Amino acid sequence: MYVGVFADIEGSFGIWRMRQCRMGTREWQYGRACLTEDVNQVIRGAYDGGATRVLVKDTHEVGFNCLVKELDPRAEYLGGHYVKPSLYGDIVGIDLVLYVAIHAASGTPDAFFPHTHYGVFSELRLNGVPVGEMDIYGGYLGELGIPIGFVSGEDVAVNQALLTLPWARAVVVDKEKSAYTSGEKSLTYLVEGRELLRSTAAEAVRHASEMKPLVLKGPLHFEAVFRTEELARKYNTWDFPRQGATVSWDASDMLEGFDKLNRLVFIPRWSYPARRPMAFAMRNYYRIKNTYFAPKPDPEGASFSVHDSR
Ligand SMILES: [Zn+2]
Q: Which of 64, 181, 239, 283 could form a disulfide with 79 if both were Cys (CB 3.0 to 4.6 A apart)?
């Protein structure tokens, strides 16, 4: 069985604030070590459960967050964003996706760094209903025949995901600072939590046959509510219908709908003919930058030392 371990970062064990998710900061360098640890546990769990091949797909921001040299060497790694399949790149043949370190949807109250796909939206709606990333990504992967069978993240994020993916196995992750800065207590919490990532991922893979690709029946009507009308105007180079801060588009299925969403936020119309070489250049730029020019980590008092991360 070919398993995809897809990684966001907000929902990692060890992460309690936004700066730890912001590329290029010293706090993010600490966050990367936390994420890498979580991803490694899920890779191990996938193999425990019967995976024969594992691909790590790094997705947060520009898609180079995991510390690649520290990843379990059995797994392949795919960083950065691609044009086709929209955003993810070559994921053909994957049987099951395990989604690590997710976060809540745009507009979720009292959530850690809630957003849907991109920080410019205050809400993303599909056929009139607010949606999160597990609806959008789940529906996109589902259209390709790939189920999501595992999620980890804070409780509200996990609960939202399970409404869409009721078959998925889940691990809840604390987002309170005190969970990670309380010495021995924090270390115990981390060891147990990460052990749970491994065993839960294994269980998801063992039960892969129960997991369903999420198929959202078309026609689909998308509404992206931008944080301001000015942002909506700036991003809508595609002249999708716009009313104030809300940009909308229709699609016959999630492949088309997600492609249009990515065009709206990542591919301004003028750059469309050059999208492939541009994506290629961006991947190489960020891969080199984030591999060789990363800052020293700042754990800000975390009990988890990034140096004994294995
Ligand atoms: Zn993210």
A: 64
